[in-house]
């Protein structure tokens, strides 16, 4: 991948009345990258995308695409491709006419239009529906056509605003594979907006996690997952057990904590500084916890004794809720093998590794 | 017998429920229509004759009036479209409250009798009306423009009377257009004009069709406005029919004129509908 910067956001800000919707948004996107904007509903993902697309003007900062300042440039002059949540295919045009729309506006010769439309439909694997109207297509087919329509103009940047959220689970998975393949085949720089963390992890080179209009963290899926910058990022991505705790000692890399639930735990500090006696939130993901025979304590501080409260079968794996003192934590277990015989009320031990414990500052008590 | 009975029961119930309306229609519409049609096939000596209809084949006076009626109705449709479309677009985009206000504003004048509104136009458009006095005082013209008692006056009056139907029909279809289509067209490179021509206009065709059909039919049969705003100079079919009923008392001719009006309106509306409802139109706008 070359190191040209394709899109750049500098201190972008947007307010609606007194409501600050996007603030201090800084981002550089390399050519050919696939970036996700990930965050809960209302955090400003669409607003940011609309500013990049030119549907909204930022109130502060600037947006550059291919080095050119975009503030004030209308959307029809930006040479972008965009795919919307609601497909937004023109209902009065056939599939082929929809795909050809952008090419005709660019006065591409007729023969070339025909050939490029055919190629685009080939790319999304739907050459057979060229003469149908959008309402004669399924939801998944419509979204593929919308993608073909956006890609056919060879945009400098492809924007997708929750393109999969109107589809059922199975189609969603199918289409996200499709989008990944298209991104690899075309190499087009892509911004993908979603509130589904799995989609973001699966598709992106880097993820921008947003909350309340602010960037929480920008990083690769692995960085976001393994080195969350904030408590919000950690809890938004994947499932995690929250354990309110008090810091007892910070000894270089090692943090000693006492969980409110009544057991001790160690954590590997990941850059953060926490003073002894301060409140903290410790987190352990269900898949990082192991069940052990009650009474065993192979890892010293990193174990606790509890009781099985409930078991939930989820197909490929199962979840076991364990009561430890006043806390309940969820443990992911394999559905076959040693723990299959568990039942509610059974005493169990939990063990974990200090490097799998995430600690964030908690509210003072 | 039982099966037979239950099969016909829904129809019998429907007929019972419809009976009052059917009765009124029969007495007030079907019978008079048949009577008028029979009347139109008589001459003044009450003998069978096609002479009343034949007038429209050779008498240029009658042909001229028919042609003028069609022409003025057509102009009215055009004027309603041109002036109504921007209003409808504004209403389709406006917030719920604003739309309510504008709807009230365009309906409110219709709370006043059409006769009174037409006299209002006389005050505005006459030789000593506001427009002419203002233009003359400003020295832009030196003799009054003829805005009344001619075809222009009739079209102005009819447009004022019927534009509301056009606007409401257009709003309904414009409001149904998904606004994200404009975003999609914009990002693909379409300018505002381009978006209007390639998205707004084709998607509002059902509204254009409904509004035009309504305004055309109403204009073809309008009597009061052409009589007041066109005067004796601009005679249209309904006015001619009225004169033959009330003044010359030639009822058979009036009957024929009525049927001619009905027939030509129906024929033109049908042709227009057929022209608009292409195969694509049916594919796109059919319910399923
Ligand atoms: N035109 C507007 N006027 C006023 N407030 C707006 C406008 N558009 C968005 N907002 C507000 O800005 C905030 C961010 O909206 P935005 O649509 O960007 O969220 P989002 O992250 O895309 O959420 P979702 O996942 O639900 O699509 C919301 O609180 C919303 O209410
Ligand atoms: Mg959104």
TrEMBL record, chain A:
Q: Which UniProt keywords apply?
A: ATP-binding, Nucleotide-binding, Transport
Q: Where is the ABC transporter domain?
A: 7-237
Give Gene Ontology CC terms.
Answer: ATP-binding cassette (ABC) transporter complex
Keyword Transferase assigned = no
Record's superkingdom? Bacteria
* Enzyme class of the recorded protein, top EC level: translocase
* Catalysed conversion reaction: a quaternary ammonium(out) + ATP + H2O = a quaternary ammonium(in) + ADP + phosphate + H(+)
Query: Matching InterPro entries, A to Z?
Result: AAA+_ATPase, ABC_SmlMolc_Importer, ABC_transporter-like_ATP-bd, ABC_transporter-like_CS, Mo/tungstate-bd_C_term_dom, P-loop_NTPase, Transp-assoc_OB_typ2
Q: Which residues form a coiled coil?
A: none
| Keyword ATP-binding on entry | yes
The molecular function terms in GO held by this entry are: ABC-type quaternary ammonium compound transporting activity; ATP binding; ATP hydrolysis activity
EC number per UniProt:
7.6.2.9
Query: Which SUPFAM superfamilies does its entry note?
Result: MOP-like, P-loop containing nucleoside triphosphate hydrolases
Quaternary structure per UniProt? The complex is composed of two ATP-binding proteins (OpuCA), two transmembrane proteins (OpuCB and OpuCD) and a solute-binding protein (OpuCC).
Q: What is this protein called?
A: Carnitine transport ATP-binding protein OpuCA
Please name the source species: Cohnella lubricantis
Automatic annotation (TrEMBL), chain B:
Q: Which domain of life is it from?
A: Bacteria
Task: Kindly give the InterPro entries that the UniProt entry links to this protein.
Answer: MetI-like, MetI-like_sf
- Describe the location of the ABC transmembrane type-1 domain by residue ranges: 66-272
According to Swiss-Prot or TrEMBL, what is its membrane topology?
Answer: Multi-pass membrane protein
- Transmembrane segment boundaries: 15-38, 73-92, 104-126, 162-182, 203-229, 249-272
Similarity remark:
Belongs to the binding-protein-dependent transport system permease family. CysTW subfamily.
Protein name (Swiss-Prot/TrEMBL): ABC transporter permease
Origin organism of this chain? Cohnella lubricantis
Task: Give the lineage.
Answer: Bacteria, Bacillati, Bacillota, Bacilli, Bacillales
